[in-house]
Design goal:
InterPro entries: P-loop_NTPase. With about 1050 residues, the chain is an alpha/beta fold. It contains 43 helices and 19 strands. It has 7 domains: about 170 residues, no CATH class; about 160 residues, 3-Layer(aba) Sandwich (Rossmann fold), CATH 3.40.50; about 110 residues, no CATH class; about 110 residues, no CATH class; about 120 residues; about 130 residues, no CATH class; about 80 residues, no CATH class. Strands 4-5-6-3-7 form a 5-stranded parallel β-sheet, with helices on both faces. It has a 3-stranded antiparallel β-sheet with strand order 8-10-9. A hairpin with a 2-residue loop joins strand 16 and strand 17.
């Protein structure tokens, strides 16, 4: 393709400074790119330091002590380039001061000491045997065994302690040494040697039952000393370096020490050497050290040293930190996107010059090479010379190569390495184009079936081109017969600069490889087999586009101002709610074919509004875009029909019916008579708000302007019956209303409404029972509207099952029954009725106590509860109640009087008197009063008013002295007993067995001729009165004669001698 480039010339494109210098020092100088470093104070940039400024500072000798320059930079940032250039310039310009450079390839730490001794012509009392480093690499396990056994022998007293401890520790130390020597053999050291980490030591102690009397710090120090003894005959590198520093200081020498990479070059002793060098007063070294951020932080000592380095700004006059890149390696300070063209142009010029060619009009191939150039726009027409110089690249291709370098990779090195691979591809032909595609950023998309033509167009095109023409010479070089090819271009990325690349979403997978979503989509568009899961950004982007256009998942009226809907399709297929299928033809899906539009639509859902607008403008006229929208409308229609089929209703009818039904339910759910069931009401604010929003989805035309529903909408009762009989189908699970699926929503609504209806029926029964008590009042009110209310109460009382309209009508009835006038009058009547009821109870209580008193008095009385009937012929009035009240008050007073009268009566005594079985004249009055009193009580029980009669009875009863009456009765009874006894004795004495009573006895005595008249008289008096008084003169004779005639008489008769009138 180009006579100035061949396979051998590519060897000059070396990735490291030392390789280029080995090719030719002059080649290195011509291809060297000036380095720029940043210097910070904390996080603030205070200076940009060029390599010439650094060299100038190093040439100055008016400073005592060490001067240390720490050059930080991630891999490939140019640390070795800088140090190689410093040495080259130093040798040429500062011949009186020695320079020592330790490159990254010199991995033997003994090299540092040996180079210093030889270059500075110094001698130390130590023999450095470089073969020992080789032994360490070849026999690491043998040396570890010697080190461990020797260290433990010094620390422990017996084999019983040494052997188990060695067997425990040795495998860990061996693995650490082997890992390190493996890095050395590979020529790349990422982690410096640590014979044993503290964490490893502590883990071993925690996981064993052995008693190991060792301290980590002392054990590690002894192990390191054993390694020093092996490499440096018992001395450590820090001590040797200190001895050299003292000698050069005493001899007035100020050498320059260049260490390419602290960890890589002096691996084992990186932290020790750095610690020595930043001890400023102990030498006269000028030191430039390359340091990779974080490389010495893996060990406890290294971390401590790193913390110390971070605080070295307090002595920054002799210790300076310079940065070639930021700590993460994302930003590099020595090569930016604007400099990449002259950077590579310089390389290509030197590369072609080594083959004897110079890109100018003098070159015989200049015209031929000019024909290879792709056609540029008018603004680039004056750059033809530069274009020939850059062949087979052009400026756009170089900038894309720069953009393709992964974050964290050094721009200087990888621009050379990637350019070398691209040149090798051009030399070999188009066969292995897939190998170099990742090396060049592809923010353009060329529409061509040939992969190579497509790729070539994307490489060479300018950032704002819409068409690319590939020249005939370029086509012929790669075996094409066409004269030229014109390719349509589309831009994928949003802009030209590297800063806009985040539009191509990248992240790292488990293997730390960068994953670019748009690159995966591009591979799919270009016909490659791609895992369907990785094409989610395409499906999500298409779903976002069609959703923005038609809102297909929203089940609402089309072409309104509503931006969302309450009822939505919610079934997710391949992580989107739209059924999107890639490269297929399905009439029930949105089909996405392989095309440029598929790349543009990638992650459309994550774009900002302005980005979405720009993207849509680019693809709005594409057939694919129109097809997606049409298919989305068809899918929405299918969803809509399936929803209506599952509901058994037209969706507008369902929405209107549900909302009106709920509004009707709010009428009674907020009524006072349903307060007991209010906690179970499903008609809360959230539901009503949801249904209002759902209603607006279908009937809101613009703000506060609703469309009138059609005539075929459901009546409230019809929706009520529809809901109670509904069995939600599985189809409804694919739709949501609010935060629930439509099936869950309707099932929950049905369940809660059914339970609420049961509670409403209970509340209704309680309320109607209460209202039944108002019927007499309403009927007696003489107001026709109130009488109608009574009729309605009776009508509702007869209902067994209530429909929603019944509940609404009953609520309206409740509202009428709560009219202020009606309530005031009923409450007044109800209060009076309660008062009458309380008086009636008081009367019953007093009457019951009266009956109890009567029973205690021995009267046969029974109690029957009187009560007061409010209802009289189904109605009553206020006057009737007041009349009843007055009547009951009078009866209560009478009963109270009677109760008080009986309470003061000696009821036990009265009972005794009334229960006597003898007929005494003196008891007749109280027995008559007893009958009157019982009669009065019975009349009171009947509700009669007997005020005067009862008062008369009470007065008579209270006038009786029952205690005096008892005495009289007792006397009468005693006299009667005496008579009975006399009757028995006299009958026996006279042998009158046939005499039945005292009158017959007196009659027989009166006719007995054997008894003198005087005796008869005294016997008769004795029998009749219970005593007889004998005359004083004849008394003795009469007494003797009585004893003779009646010998047993004085067994029952007492003879007393009395004086005066006492009988």
């Amino acid at each position: 393709m180009l006579p100035c480039l061949n396979k051998n010339s590519l060897k000059l494109l070396a990735g490291t400074a030392d390789e280029r210098y080995d090719q030719s020092p002059e080649y290195f100088r011509r291809t060297h790119f000036p380095q720029v470093m940043h210097r910070y104070n904390g996080s603030q940039l205070i200076a940009e330091v060029t390599e010439d400024e650094l060299l100038g500072e190093l040439k100055e000798t008016d400073t005592s002590g060490n001067r240390v320059y720490l050059v930080f930079g991630s891999t490939g940032s140019g640390k070795s380039e800088l140090l190689r250039w410093l040495k080259d310039k130093w040798v040429a310009e500062v011949s009186d001061r020695p320079v020592i450079r330790i490159s990254r390839t010199e991995l033997n730490p003994q090299t540092l000491i040996k180079k210093c001794l030889e270059t500075l012509n110094l001698s130390l009392d130590v023999c450095i045997d470089e073969d020992r480093w080789g032994i360490l690499l070849k026999k690491p396990i043998t040396l570890v065994n010697q080190m461990v056994w020797t260290t433990l022998a010094e620390a422990m007293e017996s084999d019983e302690e040494i052997v188990p401890t060695a067997l425990l520790l040795r495998p860990v130390i061996e693995q650490n040494i082997i890992d390190f020597t493996s890095q050395v053999k590979r020529g790349k050291i990422k982690n410096p040697l640590e014979v044993m980490h503290r964490e490893q030591f502590e883990t071993l102690l925690a996981n064993t039952t052995l008693h190991i009397p060792l301290e980590y710090a002392a054990f590690r120090q002894n192990l390191s000393r054993q390694l020093d003894h092996f490499l440096f005959e018992g001395q450590d590198i820090g001590t040797l370096f200190k001895q050299m520093s003292l000698q050069i200081k005493s001899r007035g020498i100020r050498p320059l020490l260049l260490i390419d990479d602290l960890v890589q070059s002096v691996n084992i002793y990186a932290t020790s050497i750095l610690d020595q060098l930043i001890t400023l007063e102990e030498g006269s070294w000028d030191v430039v050290i390359g340091l990779t951020p974080g490389a010495v932080q893996d060990t406890e000592k290294g971390f401590s040293l790193t913390q110390r380095i971070q605080n070295l700004d307090t002595i920054n006059d002799r210790v300076k930190k310079l940065w070639l890149s930021d700590e993460s390696g994302k930003d590099f300070f020595n090569l930016d996107r604007k400099q990449v063209v002259p950077y590579i142009a310089n390389y290509l010029t030197q590369l072609k010059a080594t083959q004897g060619f110079n890109c100018s009009l003098k070159c015989p191939h200049y015209k031929q090479c000019s024909g290879i150039l792709p056609e540029e726009s008018d603004k680039d027409s004056n750059l033809n010379y530069l274009g020939v110089q850059l062949l087979p690249f052009n400026s756009h291709m170089l900038r894309r190569t720069y953009d393709a370098i992964p974050i964290g990779k050094g721009k200087l090195r990888y621009m050379i390495l990637n350019s070398k691979e691209i040149l090798r591809f051009f030399l070999k032909g188009k066969k292995h184009v897939s190998r170099v595609i990742p090396l060049i950023r592809r923010e353009m998309f060329a529409e061509h079936e040939d992969m190579f033509i497509k790729t070539l167009s994307e490489w060479y095109a300018s950032e704002d081109a819409i068409q690319m023409i590939i020249s005939e010479p370029l086509l012929k070089h790669f075996g094409y017969s066409e004269n030229q090819i014109s390719i349509k271009l589309n831009k994928i990325a949003a802009g030209n600069t590297r800063e806009e690349l985040p539009l191509q979403i990248e992240y790292k997978n488990e293997n730390n490889a960068v994953f670019n979503e748009k690159e995966v989509v591009r591979d799919w568009v270009e016909g490659k087999e791609v895992n369907d899961e990785l094409l989610l950004p395409v499906r999500s982007g298409v779903a976002a586009l069609v959703h923005d256009v038609i809102k297909g998942v929203h089940m609402n009226r089309s072409f309104t101002s509503r931006t969302s809907s309450v009822i939505q399709w919610n079934e997710v297929v391949n992580r989107t709610r739209y059924p999107i299928k890639l490269d297929k033809n399905d009439e029930f899906s949105i089909n996405v074919n392989r095309s440029y539009v598929g790349i543009q639509i990638t992650n459309f859902q994550t774009m900002k509004y302005s980005e979405k607008l720009n993207t849509f403008q680019k693809i709005s006229n594409e057939y694919e875009t129109s097809k997606w929208i049409y298919q989305a409308e068809n899918v929405r229609k299918i969803w809509f029909e399936s929803l209506e089929l599952a509901l058994g209703l037209k969706l507008p009818v369902f929405v209107h019916g549900m909302r009106n039904w709920a509004q009707q339910a709010r009428i009674y759910s907020e009524s006072s008579w349903t307060s007991d069931a209010k906690g179970k009401s499903p008609f809360n604010k959230e539901l009503m708000s949801l249904l209002d929003e759902c209603y607006s989805d279908w009937y809101l035309l613009r703000e506060n302007f609703y469309e009138t529903p059609d005539d075929d909408v459901l009546a409230n009762e019809e929706f009520d019956l529809w809901l109670l009989s509904l069995v939600p189908s599985k189809t409804l699970e694919s739709f949501t209303i609010g935060s629930l699926t439509l099936k869950e929503f309707l099932s929950n609504l049905k369940e809660s409404y059914s339970g609420y209806l049961e509670l409403l029926h209970q509340s209704f029964r309680q309320s109607i029972e209460k209202r039944l008590t108002m019927i007499p009042f309403l009927m007696g009110s003489c107001k026709s509207e109130w009488i109608k209310l009574a009729d309605q109460i009776c009508t509702f009382n007869e209902k067994i099952f209530l429909r929603q309209q019944d509940l609404v009508n009953y609520t309206l009835l409740e509202q009428q029954l709560e009219q202020p006038e009606l309530v005031i009058q009923f409450n007044r009547l109800f209060a009076l009725n309660n008062e009458v009821d309380q008086l009636s109870k008081q009367f019953d209580q007093a009457l019951m106590e009266v009956v109890d008193f009567l029973i205690e008095c021995g009267m046969q009385a029974t109690y029957e509860e009187v009560g007061v009937e409010i209802v009289d012929d189904g109605k009553f009035s206020l006057s009737e109640l007041e009349k009843k009240k007055r009547k009951i008050l009078t009866n209560v007073q009478q009963v109270s009087n009677l109760k008080n009268c009986l309470a003061l009566t000696p009821r036990t005594l009265v009972k005794y008197l009334l229960n006597l079985q003898v007929q005494l004249e003196i008891l007749k009055p109280i027995k008559e009063l007893k009958l009157k009193m019982i009669a009065c009580v019975e009349l009171l029980m009947e509700g009669s008013q007997i005020e005067s009669e009862l008062n008369s009875v009470i007065d008579e009863w209270q006038s009786i002295d029952f205690y005096e009456l008892r005495e009289l009765v007792e006397r009468k009874l005693q006299l009667e007993q005496i008579k009975i006894n006399l009757l028995e004795v006299i009958r026996n004495d006279l042998d009158y067995e046939d005499v039945g009573n005292i009158y017959q006895l007196l009659e027989r005595i009166n006719h007995n001729s054997q008894i003198r008249p005087s005796i008869k008289r005294h016997i008769r008096l004795l029998i009749e009165n219970g005593y007889s008084t004998l005359p004083p003169v004849q008394g003795k004779r009469l007494l003797e004669e009585i004893k003779e005639k009646f010998p047993n008489l004085f067994e029952v008769v007492e003879i007393r001698l009395v004086v005066g009138n006492d009988k």
